[in-house]
Write a structure and sequence with these properties.
The chain is an alpha/beta fold and 223 residues long. It contains 9 helices and 6 strands; from the N terminus they run αααβαβααββαβαβα. Helix 8 links the parallel strand 5 and strand 6.
Length: 223
């Protein structure tokens, strides 16, 4: 079996990797990486799945597509490397986190501490051309991320799906298992954060659900 990710996701998604849409997606990406600046770097493409193995997922946070400015995208939805200025959406996420759980806002935007605890930070489209938001939509990523969500939906252990914004909420119809909790609100972007994101308390709601189901809560602090 080809090891694309390096953990149990390879087995979960092996049939997807053989499908025509995925082969076409790979060809498209090869050309894009050769001819344009694409984010994230190729080696970071599957970081969301690498950092959070299928069996370890407790919470899924769905984003739209990667940040499209230099130095930001790292293969984890909403996350940026330590030392990079916080993008507006992430800054609003931290504001809501402080309001929700009284966790002081971090100056680091590196969300790997969440990922390592079981928070799958997944973008519905996993690559983007520099300076062109959503430029890789409709190229095949949606099929793969559908498959990821369907696989998680079949899990017996209850999960939390946090869906911010319309792009993420389009995936809601794929979540059929009544054991799971769906938390949805407006996107944390400055354009929509005041339309229902602020005050939605997703972090405390997720932890309350995990605790109720006998699972370890997420420590949402970023060092």
């Amino acid at each position: 079996m080809v090891r694309i990710i390096g953990n149990d996701w390879d087995d979960i998604l092996k049939d997807e990797f053989d499908k025509e849409y995925y082969q076409n997606l790979r060809k498209f990406l090869d050309e894009e990486y050769q001819n344009y600046t694409i984010y994230p770097k190729a080696q970071d493409l599957y970081n969301a799945l690498r950092y959070t193995a299928f069996d370890k997922v407790k919470v899924v946070i769905l984003g739209q597509d990667p940040y499209h400015e230099p130095g930001q995208a790292m293969g984890l939805a909403f996350s940026v490397p330590r030392g990079i200025k916080l993008p507006p959406s992430l800054n609003n996420i931290y504001k809501e986190l402080e309001s929700d759980l009284a966790i002081k806002q971090s100056t680091s935007g590196d969300l790997r501490p969440w990922a390592k605890q079981g928070v799958l930070l997944l973008n519905t489209v996993m690559t983007v051309r520099a300076h062109k938001a959503f430029s890789h939509a409709g190229k095949g990523w949606e099929n793969l991320t559908d498959a990821i969500i369907k696989a998680l939906d079949k899990r017996e252990r209850p999960l939390v799906f946090i869906l911010w914004g319309k792009a993420a909420q389009k995936k809601m119809e794929l979540i059929q298992n009544k054991k799971h909790l769906i938390i949805k609100s407006a996107h944390p972007s400055p354009l929509s954060a005041y339309q229902g994101f602020f005050g939605s308390r997703p972090f405390s709601k997720a932890n309350a659900f995990l605790k109720e189901k006998g699972q370890t809560e997420i420590d949402w602090r970023i060092g």
